[in-house]
Design brief:
heterotrimer, A alpha+beta (569), B alpha/beta (184), C alpha+beta (211), A: 569 residues, alpha+beta, 20 helices, globular, B: 184 residues, 6 helices
């Protein structure tokens, strides 16, 4: 397959553009083009529509601040687009330098609808405007916030107070027609609301029972993860990553540690990889349990909540035996694991494999063929695969719309290419199929775990033995001078990661969880952007619920598995 | 915050028995308002689930309505965007009401010394019990609820003693003895 | 061997929702669901010990001895604090919740000791990084999770409170550098992996020394 760095493909895309609009950046971890701002819309359209390229999924839009870069060198800011082609399984990064004096870019919403919220976030964090954006307003920070926090000259602890006068005013795409005041009512749901899915604010314009326009406000859990990553060293970011998708915290640890390991050019030892895979799959089971349990609570089926929380409690026992915490584990370390596995790890895991299916089957018997649930969920908030991809969906929600995209298959990492498991897909694209696909995935995860346990635990160390990356074993540190010195330097100075950038993704429980990390050679990340899987999924929510009733809106929210820690970082 | 005004006129065995009964009923039937935003909300969900079952302590009913609940259980990070919402919910609750701050983020901002995170909810509302942990285990949360029970009794007893000591000063000293955290 | 990696991915343009069968339309599967809940009900009624509930505070869940709970400052045989105020724990803490003030120790081999050692329990995220960082095994964590405070200032725990553990039972210790179940072979392997002198000799081509 020709790579995108090849001149022929580049020429095909840039043929009609002025010379010098697109340049290839050499030496990057994945094909990277530097695109001039004026050519951005044309390049994006060509990449999306072209038959040889077909970049239909916009993964992420990140802003980066280089305050020392002058306007002649390109400008202070750089907006980085990560593109993915679902059919060709190919990746491309576009970098667009932007000067501070003229920080405007064309919006790419006409090409990828999923760019909507990503562009709002870049505006919020950096102050770069996007022309043609229907609602360019702050998305994560509150309305009284002044300044752009991810700029390098913004003090991380500078806060602004929000009062009730400054609260975000909704932006509705009202359909044309008479504005009959007696028929329409605008309802505000949240941010404190009875649904079990975190804090968000839904403003819906109702015509009777039907929602004719809606808007969503997020940012109620914006905890400044990316700024905290810039103020702490690489190892200290690990507890912060736990709190991203807190329902399956270990997967975030693994995704982040793999990103830094790739930058360092090291690999975790086989024992750590084996354990990481098993615990990631258990975390996936946990996340799907909580998603389905809370969806059913929102629909009124409370019993299933108790049933679905039991597997979580049992898995907590295993995870707690490994690392000492139930939920926010911080068990991954750069280079492997924080501590060795407990001696009864295999016995505990096998016991879990025996007891979890019973709870899943109980819930399925209660709900799967239950006409009450079917009436509430079949056909609700349906989205086709093609449209979902244009909205940048990934993960189980996309697989419920018929697209078998799974990063564990597309770019196999850890041990996934040696394992036998299915990637289930369903064709309905509605709440029912999103619910059912999570049940199917729980079964596949248990199958993966069983295969790994049957292979046996590999012997060997649980963390890489490089003293510049991993803390030495404690008895070595107590007894040997060199180990003590390395220990001291690692804690005081941190891991020195060589300069470079990388985008690394794993299949999280919600979809593709990616980290875009830029290192400047020091012990702290220069820029760490999280590609949150539920961010573009939730941006589709207003479109999904238009035309439905309010109760449908609540149920469809559940199926999307929006986890606020990841949505708003 | 508990309603500490005790009747100084006509205090007799009828009213003191009634107050004891009222205390007993109140502390054995906290109806929490789970203001859950983040990871602590998941541990709160575990607390109401079958393994720990906070219903054993009288919190059978978990109401998402401030008018119907008496304990505001803030579970998770509160940031500056959420601040006005939290204050409004707290104001809407009827007396007597208590606040449990669950988890490091709600108590003090946790490790988020950042531009959008409130450094503890006691910046805007008074807190009765702080439960540390990140997140606290369900047992830790239940321990906090048990401490709150003791506090209900203790505050009532202290208010009664104060009222007996000086009838005219009863009101001021009762509220000064609220034991609320004063925001730094 | 995975078979799906070579299959091309199809992108449907339309949705095909689930179609209900006859028995589903007649609400018959509800009887199966009722059976599930009735089974649970009678099982719990006649076998209350089989219920998963843990009657805290009368019973406590058996957390492992890796549990990250309340910190403990360990002491030397003579009872003084083992900590040498090296500040590694304060440096490594992501929440910056450890506050240490160092003082000079009369014994010149020990050099320093903490005059003030405070942990703000309400800032602490119980990540265990302080235990990882300590080179003296001076700070470890216990199995204790019963913590609740009425005032913010009660939560700043000082040296004396950290040094007196709530129990002297080894079973109630938590996250610490070595555990009783760790077998000798794995401990040796961990140590060998960091035998830096042998590693350097190996790189230089000298024969590895016998252990």
């Amino acid at each position: 397959m020709p790579t995108l760095a090849e001149p022929s493909l580049l020429d095909a895309v840039a043929a009609k553009l002025p010379a010098g609009s697109v340049a290839v950046q050499e030496g990057a971890d994945q094909p990277t083009w530097v695109v001039r701002r004026e050519a951005l819309s044309d390049v994006a359209r060509a990449l999306h529509d072209g038959r040889e390229t077909r970049f239909d999924l916009l993964l992420d839009v990140a802003g980066v601040d280089y305050p020392e870069r002058s306007d002649e060198e390109g400008g202070r800011f750089e907006v980085v687009y990560h593109l993915y082609s679902v059919t060709r399984n190919d990746r491309l990064r576009l970098k667009v330098p932007v000067a501070e004096s003229d920080a405007v870019l064309p919006s790419l919403i006409p090409v990828w609808k999923g760019a909507n919220w990503f562009e709002r976030e870049v505006y919020d964090m950096f102050g770069i405007r996007f022309t043609g954006h229907p609602n360019l307003s702050r998305i994560l920070c509150h309305e009284a916030f002044q300044g752009h926090p991810l700029r390098k000259d913004y003090d991380p602890a500078r806060r602004w107070i929000l009062t009730e006068d400054d609260i975000y005013k909704p932006h509705f795409d009202l359909p044309e027609g008479e504005d009959d005041l007696f028929e329409r009512m605008t309802v505000n749901i949240g941010p404190s609301h009875p649904a079990m899915h975190g804090t968000f604010r839904l403003m819906a314009v109702l015509d009777g029972e039907e929602i004719i326009a809606s808007d969503v406000e997020i940012g109620y859990l914006h905890r400044c993860f990316e700024k905290m990553a810039e103020t702490h060293n690489w190892q200290q970011v690990i507890p912060y990553t736990d709190r991203l998708n807190y329902c399956s915290a270990f997967i975030n640890n693994v995704a982040y540690c793999k990103t830094v390991e790739k930058l360092l050019g090291i690999e975790a030892p086989p024992r750590a990889v084996w354990a990481r895979t098993i615990l990631s799959e258990f975390s996936r089971v946990m996340d799907h349990c909580v998603c389905n349990g809370t969806t059913l609570v929102d629909a009124g089926a409370l019993t299933n909540f108790w049933y679905m929380f039991q597997p979580r409690e049992e898995i907590y026992g295993l995870i707690e035996a490994c690392c000492g915490a139930r939920l926010t584990v911080s068990y991954g370390r750069i280079g492997g694991l924080a501590q060795d596995l407990p001696p009864d790890f295999e016995a505990r895991s096998r016991r879990l494999l025996e007891i979890i299916p019973a709870f899943i089957e109980d819930t399925e018997k209660l709900v799967d063929k239950n006409r009450i649930w079917l009436d509430r969920s079949v056909g609700v908030a349906a989205i086709s695969g093609e449209e979902a991809i244009n909205w940048s969906w990934t993960g189980p929600c996309l697989r419920a719309s018929g697209v078998a995209l799974d990063q564990r298959r597309a770019v196999p990492y850890d041990l996934y290419d040696t394992l036998d498991f299915e990637v289930p897909t369903l064709q309905g694209g509605d709440v029912y199929d999103r619910f059912r696909i999570r049940m199917l995935e729980i079964r596949e995860s248990l199958k993966i775990i069983r295969q790994l346990l049957d292979r046996g635990m590999p012997e060997g160390p649980y963390i890489v033995a490089d003293p510049h990356v991993a803390l030495p074993a404690k008895d070595a540190a107590y007894n040997q001078m060199e180990a003590m010195i390395y220990h001291f330097k690692l804690i005081m100075d941190g891991i020195q990661v060589p300069a470079g950038e990388i985008y690394s993704a794993v299949e999280g429980a919600n979809g593709e969880l990616g980290f875009y990390a830029i290192s400047d050679g020091s012990s702290k990340p220069y820029r760490l952007k999280v590609r949150p899987p539920c961010f573009p999924i939730f941006s589709t929510f207003p479109t999904l619920i238009n035309g439905g009733s309010l109760s449908d809106a609540i149920v469809s929210l559940g199926g999307l598995n929006v986890i606020a820690g990841e949505l708003e970082r | 915050m508990a309603n500490l005004e005790t009747k100084t006129v006509g205090e007799s065995w009828v009213t003191t028995t009634f107050e004891t009964l009222e205390d007993w009923a109140q502390r054995h039937s906290f109806w929490p308002f789970p203001f859950g935003t983040a990871c602590c909300a998941i541990e709160f969900m575990s607390t109401v689930s079958s393994h720990y079952d906070v219903a054993r302590f009288g919190s059978e009913v978990v109401r998402f309505s401030p008018r119907q609940s008496d304990v505001l259980l803030v579970a998770g990070t509160i940031n500056d965007k959420m601040g006005p919402v939290l204050k409004r919910i707290y104001d809407q609750m009827a007396e007597p009401k208590w606040v449990i701050s669950m988890g490091a983020c709600a108590c003090s901002g946790g490790f988020y010394r950042a531009y959008h995170v409130m450094q503890g909810i006691d910046e805007i509302i008074p807190v009765d019990v702080y439960v540390p942990g990140c997140p606290p285990t369900p047992e830790g949360l239940i321990y906090g609820i048990l401490q709150l029970k003791e506090r209900v009794v203790r505050d009532r007893r202290r208010a009664a003693e104060r009222a007996k000591a000086g009838a005219t000063n009863g009101k001021e000293s009762a509220s000064a003895d609220a034991g609320r955290a004063v925001p730094a | 061997m995975s078979t799906l990696s070579s299959q091309p991915i199809t992108i449907p343009k339309r949705v095909t929702p689930y179609r209900m069968g006859l028995s589903e339309r007649l609400y018959l599967p509800l009887l199966g669901g009722l059976w599930v809940t009735i089974r649970h009900f009678f099982r719990n009624l006649f076998n209350p010990k089989g219920m998963p509930i843990i009657d805290y505070p009368e019973k406590r869940r058996a957390y492992s001895h890796r549990y990250r709970g309340h910190h403990i400052l360990t002491s030397r045989p003579d009872g003084s604090v083992r900590c040498v105020a090296c500040f590694l724990c304060a440096q490594n803490c992501p929440a910056e919740c450890i506050h240490i003030e160092a003082g000079e120790h009369p014994d010149v081999n020990i050099e320093k000791y903490p005059v003030v050692y405070e942990i703000d329990m309400l800032r602490c995220v119980f990540c265990g990084f302080c235990v990882d960082a300590c080179p003296e095994e001076a700070i470890i964590m216990s199995n204790n999770y019963d913590m609740a405070y009425f005032h913010r200032d009660q939560s700043i725990v000082g040296k004396e409170d950290l040094m007196k553990p709530f129990t002297f039972d080894e079973e109630r210790l938590g996250y610490r550098p070595s555990y009783p179940e760790e077998d000798v072979e794995r401990a040796k392997m961990r140590r060998d992996a960091f035998n830096l002198v042998a590693m350097a000799k190996q790189k230089a081509g000298e024969p590895a020394a016998a252990r």
